Amino acid sequence: MNDSYTKKMLTVIVICAVFFSLTWGGFFSFMSYRFIMGWKQGEHIQQRKDELVCCERIIELMEEMVVLLKKK
Asked: Is the pLDDT of residue 67 over 80?
C-alpha cells in the first residue's frame, strides 16, 4: 500500500475513535446523571403508580372479555 494512503486512513480512524469515545462517554455520563436525579426526585415512584394503573385496566378488560366469552 501507499504510505500516504495508510497515514491518511490511520488519521481518519484515530479522529473517529476519539470522537466516538468522547461523545459516548458524555452520553453515558449524562444518562447516568439523569437516572440518579430522577431517582432522587422520586420519578420511579410515579412511574410505578402509572404501571399499576395500566395493569389494573388490562386486568379489568381481560375479565370483561372472559365474561363475554362465557356468554357465547
From this structure: yes
